[in-house]
Hints:
Elements (H helix, E strand, L loop, with lengths): L9 H9 L2 H6 L2 H12 L6 E6 L7 E7 L4 H12 L1 E12 L5 E11 L10 H23 L3 H4 L9 E4 L1 H5 L3 E8 L4 H11 L2 E7 L2 E2 L2 E10 L7 H16 L2
Antiparallel strand pairs: 1-2, 2-4, 3-4, 5-6, 6-9, 7-9, 8-9
Helix pairs in contact: 1-3, 4-5, 4-8, 8-9
Amino acid sequence: MPALSNSVSREVSEFLDSMPAAYARAFSVRDVEEHAHIVARRGSELAHAEVGGGRTVPPFVCVVADDRPGLLSLVSDALLVHGLNVTGAQVYCRRRRDSRQEAVDFFWLEPASSRFGEQLDLVELTSFAQTLRELIAEEQLVQQQPSRRDTIPAPRPEPVRVYFELDALRRDEYKLIVETSDFSGLLFAISSALHAQGARILASDIRTKDGVARDWFLLESIQAQPFTAERLCDVQQAVFLAVLNR
Length: 246
């Protein structure tokens, strides 16, 4: 176990004490301090994902959420969306002061199509963290409210609309707009269709009001080639069918 100095806060000490012995053997005091602060920033969120590591070591993504079956599956889904490979991972479970089991997982990533030794851009890591956070939150909310579907009348279906924003296309940006009735698995259906079409999500905005989802996704080609008009049509059609045939 790393020796903690007197200057280390009680928060960091309590975090280290809550982690398994294998964690203490794997990381330095400096690492423990950074990890403790990341975990603390979860607050009351259903899940938290954050890029760490700074500029002195290879960056990583730390995922903090209640430990439960299926968490690593959602991580795999997010990796698929962004075309990322795992170069290293360390997965831990700790017992919080409120006796809940909390997963604290670390993932070192690289682009699936990168050359050997090429480092992953921090923007891509941040985008991956955002997608993962949304996937975890979406699934946990559904699991926490299983009875609502039986007690609340289903809203009137919203027509599915999938289109690229014209103003963005004029700026050579590919901003896909999706408007539809919200349903469990919507984000996964969209992201899977985009990945199958060779499109990577650079940024997204997910908004749902009164059962209607109005989301946008800023895309780029995984092959780093501009989208042709034909490819844009294919992407639009693939997402439309994925949402329509849920």
